[in-house]
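Summarise this fold before class:
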Amino acid sequence: MVFFLLLVIAAIVLGVIGVLAHGLLYLLFIAIVVFVGALVHLAVRWRRSGRGRVR
């Protein structure tokens, strides 16, 4: 969960810098990719942890 939160915080920081700094719009796109990666990471972990509990 800590890794997910770090990825989300990094995505937010990169997104804010990408929006506010002129000419650094590519950072916004990198932030979007990092955020989507964080969501995929969370989904994979959630799915793995839920498999063993269903009985």
Q: What stands out?
A: The chain has one domain: 2-48. The two ends are 25 Å apart (CA to CA). Residues 2-48 form one domain.
